[in-house]
Design a protein that fits this description.
heterodimer, A: alpha+beta, five-stranded mixed sheet, four-stranded mixed sheet, about 45% strand, B: mainly alpha, 7 helices, about 60% helix, binds copper (II) ion
Chain lengths: ~120, ~150
Amino acid sequence: MPCRKKTIFTFLTAAVAGVMAFSQPVHAAGATVASVRFSADHFEPAKLTVPANQPFKVEVTNADKKAIEFESFDLHRERVVRPGETITVYMAPTVPGHYTFCDDFDHSVAEGAIEAR
Amino acid sequence: MSGRTRGWLIGLAAIAAIQVLRMPVRNGREQGGFEAPPAVRSAILTACFQCHSEQPRWPWYTQLAPVSWFIHAQVGEARRRLNFSTWKDYLYDPGTAARKFGAINQMVRSGAMPPWYFRMLSARGRLTPAQRTAIETWAIEGRAQALKAEPN
Ligand SMILES: [Cu+2]
C-alpha cells in the first residue's frame, strides 16, 4: 500500500472507531430502541430513524382506547397492541431503506415509516 | 362467415390480445428457509406454497390472461399476509411468530385455507384430515413456544 494511502486508511479507521465508540447506545443491551406512540388515530412520531445493518427494537405504545395491529409488510412484522399496552418488536438487521408500518386493523390511520441508514 | 363463427373469432382474438397483459406471478428472491417436522413441512409445501411463498408453480393454463390476473392478485395478497419464504424473519420476533402460528391454526381449522377455488382446481389443495391435524398441532405448539418468549 503506498504511503499516502496508508495514512488515509489509518485516519479513516481511527475516525470510524471514534464515531463507533461515541455512538454506542446508552442501553445495556446494546440494540437501538426506537419508540412510537399511537393515540388519537395516529402514530407519533410518524418517522423513526434507525441504524442500518444492526438489530434494533421498536417499542410501540398504544395510548388509544382501541386495539391496533402494528404491522409492517416491508419488515414482516405483525403485532396486536391492546389499549394501554407497550410492546417490543424485535427487528433484524436491514439494508438501508424506507420501510412502512400501519395499523392493519384500521387502514384510515396514516402509515408510519422506519428509515434505516 | 356466420355470425357464430365471427363471434368465436372475436373472442379468440380478444383472449390472444390480452396476453400482452398476462401479469405472470413474479418470484422474488427466496429468503429464509421454512423448517417444520417432515409431515407438516410436506403438507404446507403442497397445499400452501402455491400462494404463500416466493416459489409458486402454477400450471400453464393459469398463466394465461384473464385467469392470471386473478391468480396474480391472490398470490400478491397471500404473500403479503403470510410468506413462508420469510418464515425465519417472523421467528426473529416471537410476538409476530405467535400471531402467524395462531392465524395458520385458525385458517386450517376453520377450513378457510386453502381457499375453496384452489381445492377445486388442484388436488394439492385437498389436505387429508391427518395433514390438517398435523398442521394444527404444530401451529398450536409453535404459538405456545413463541408466547413463552414474548408474552404480549
Ligand atoms: Cu395484519
